[in-house]
Design brief:
Three copies of one chain form a homotrimer.
Chain A lengths: L22 E3 L3 E6 L4 E6 L9 H15 L6 E6 L19 H19 L4 E6 L4 H5 L3 E5 L5 E2 L12 H11 L1 H10 L3 E2 H7 L4 E3 L4 H13 L3 H21 L1 H12 L2 H17 L1
Parallel strand pairs in A: 3-4, 4-5, 5-6, 6-9
Antiparallel strand pairs in A: 1-2, 2-3, 7-8
Helix pairs in contact in A: 1-2, 2-9, 4-5, 4-8
Chain lengths: 279, 279, 279
């Protein structure tokens, strides 16, 4: 059935077990797995700002798949090895001045990342310093650094582009229709205290306590029997996952034709110029 | 039409009028009807913990049907005659070590109870000391004893089982997707103050004021014209009621095959042992 | 496509441009357009209470269409020239003792007003003293006078009538299912502070600051690129707009047959008598 299109189905796909692995690292992502506790830590270390580039997404999907298929792994903490940013979001250089083939490949990678993460059978905790909203919203629980200078939000409309329906669905599932409607239209980046108040994140802790707190929360979630928790999570998220699975190719075509428009390309180039001047 | 599958249709089913009745009692439920005010009080008195057993549910459905068909009854207050608990939820003994026929009969009774209650044309107020979450969520208004030692929640996943989609739909309609997702995955039992903050209950009052407050709230709701209020309630709840009506048999089959699994039976036996040790 | 059934489609319908216009006034509505900023102010001035009569709605729809088709207009502030009331809601005299033809025409005007407003490509800000709930809910942002004697709500059920499904959908999109269910059943009129707390309005300001605050908020929204903001708004609202477009004729027939019932007519006459005695 369609439900099998994502997530772990441990009995049917044992092929990728990493029984021996303790840690595996690539260029942009560091994965540490503690087989005693069943807890993995996935650290983003792709300078300068952990943007979701095609390369980053590809590595991330592979890491997620490995963990999902590893029966020894029951929960994951996502965090950043870069100060001040968890992830800056979609990489603009992958959406600007590239070929149609590149856009297709890039968008498929964004979709895959989200399908894996939002549909994961593992408990997923985001330990965020700042930014990385879509990624965080797709986890089970969000802890953010208690720093009013740190921001989080889906700011697509500030770039002149539009969040796809499944970003919107994910956002609405967390904060409700009203907050999502206003925040998405304005492309708001919310300071941490506001993000907490709006429900975008679940709690704030001092930055140096992020990892510790994430571990404590994860332990609480792992106290539940996996099977019932997984079926419950799937029941909650399946309608929104199914919606993308059903419209996946349309969504790729829609993205590609939208992003290739000269007006959009111009708008993205302007935004990149503004960013480069800011530095 | 399907809308007629539940609730009172006074003109078409006047057969069960209890014009003379003042009070009727069975073994497990006490019903008092004040025909002057049109207010019934339904008291759960099934020791030790008012669990939703097949017998309890059968009596409850009969009581609800009688009241629904009694034009003299416009509103109901549900409360408990047992200290410290409104209802402990689904009776585990009805889900453990029984025949398929028993599971079928039990689950049909759970469905019937919910269809009657969630689709009731009467105003329904839950005056809760503790527990009884699904029942309370299916009422129009929830008042809980202001006692931080009293808990409420849908804790199925703690038992290793999964709340059916219509428990979930009912929960989401009250607290929204985010709170439901987290609470259902963790099988959380929330202390009264937290239940208020999450919106699971509408207000807290000192335990000895439960009945008085429920009567005051009900009077407020009964000030509205019945017909407009009933049509409005039906408009709000019909999609979720229809969903179970459409999938009722599938839902029975799903429950029966799930609950009969040896792994689930084992998990329920463990939970019962834990409970019996606690006493 | 159906999405084109409402809202501005500037490239395809440039016919109604009002390039020269500074202000245009009718009997019941005053429109001022500042072409420098692209901001229009629409003032309701239909004594005694700006009720949504057939005449008022007809003028309002024409004004909205003109603004929507004017590329010089990017945002609108709606406010009242009448003290103490923004709009009293549906005009009861248009629903009482009239012909079927009149009811049809009236309801079509209510639908048209909502389709134009909820689906507008312009940024729409409601600067409310009191009342006018449906209109306000259909805007992008709601600012209300900070006066606990001012009320707002959908009080249909107090009149013995039922809000149509698209009023309900609009309400649920703003405040969620639970608040809408209770408020609609009770036909509640909420004092301003409660309206803020429930999320019916976005902020309260002293009455004399309404216009100033609305202008400041609108400027913030207009800082975003129109195209991305409009597509995002449409994505959020399209499902609810589509639902009425699909069922528009059914909804008219439903209204007409409901409102023409003698029991409903009697209930409305009673309500009007009560109002006239109150004066």
């Amino acid at each position: 059935s369609r439900a099998q299109a994502w997530g772990r189905s441990a009995r049917q796909r044992p092929g990728l077990l990493l029984a021996q692995s303790r840690a595996f690292s690539n260029n942009k992502i560091l994965v540490e797995l503690d087989e005693g506790s069943g807890v993995a830590t996935v650290k983003f270390k792709s300078p300068p700002v952990n943007s979701l580039s095609l390369d980053f997404l590809t590595e991330l999907c592979i890491s997620l798949e490995k963990l999902e298929n590893n029966r020894g792994c029951r929960g994951v903490i996502f965090t950043s090895a870069i100060p001040k940013v968890f992830s800056s979001g979609l990489d603009i250089t992958d959406m600007c001045g590239k070929s149609t083939e590149h856009y297709v490949e890039f968008w498929r990678a964004v979709q895959q990342m989200w399908l894996r993460l939002y549909g994961s059978n593992m408990v997923t905790i985001a330990a965020i310093n700042a930014r990385g909203c879509l990624f965080a919203l797709s986890c089970d629980y969000r802890i953010m650094a208690d720093n009013p200078k740190f921001y989080i939000g889906l700011n697509e409309s500030q770039l002149g582009i539009v969040a796809p329906f499944w970003f919107k669905d994910t956002f609405v599932n967390v904060v409700g229709h009203r907050v999502a409607e206003r925040s998405l239209q304005l492309g708001s980046l919310h300071p941490a205290p506001e993000a907490l108040q709006l429900g975008i994140v679940d709690e704030l802790v001092p930055e140096e306590k992020l990892q510790e707190k994430a571990a404590a929360v994860l332990a609480q979630w792992l106290a539940l029997p996996d099977h019932a928790r997984q079926l419950t999570k799937s029941m909650m998220r399946k309608p929104v996952l199914d919606r993308l699975v059903t419209h996946q190719e349309d969504d790729v075509q829609h993205f590609v034709s939208f992003i290739a428009k000269e007006s959009i390309q111009k708008s993205l180039r302007k935004y990149m110029e503004m960013l480069s001047k800011r530095k």
